[in-house]
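Suppose you are handed a protein chain with no further information: no name, no annotation, nothing but its sequence. What can you learn? This example shows the usual starting point.
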Amino acid sequence: MTTSSGNAVCLLSGGLDSSTCLALARRDGFACYALTFDYGQRHKFELEAAARVAAALGAERRLVVKVGLDVFGGSALTADVAVPKARSLDEMGHGIPVTYVPARNTIFLSLALAWAEVLESTDIFIGVNALDYSGYPDCRPEYIAAYEKMANLATRAGVEGARLKIHTPLIGLTKAQIVTLGRELSVPFGLTHSCYDPGADGRPCGACDACLLRRKGFEEAGVEDR
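A reasonable first move is to predict its three-dimensional structure. Written in structure tokens, the prediction is:
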């Protein structure tokens, strides 16, 4: 466990993983600055979820940054492309799905890095996961390690010896383990949102990869998903 009394930038989408990651950073003594992105995603209900979670978990401040990735499209989350539904776990485990958003985590981490420098913070938390995930290349440990190395070369703080650390405490956990950890940290699961293709009222579709992986995690953890 890492303990600190310093500032940390925490990427917060409003989903299960990023909310648990924020709660973990708070538990470890960081003053958390939540960073949420409005990137033209179809599942904008996650922005409302992020606001609720940030308030509930005591973030020092929350910023919403608009990054129009829908200008480029190229993803079922940012273009008029159908979100895959009812895929098996085996199907999810092969290939890169159309819900992958090109360069998303690279862009998000770059903006988090900028805010971290302003806050004189050397810590960024991101809830990426490399086990129960849908094939995203920017969720892998080797990607995070490469980005961290680059960040320490590219910033004034890094050059002056204040080494940046990108914390990925969930990267080796199953979704069930994340649910269990979230319960231990009193994460308000009912405030979070995971669905890629919610209805007009925000209700989850129950059939996209994100919904199915979330359901699997709660069922395996023996926890009710509120």
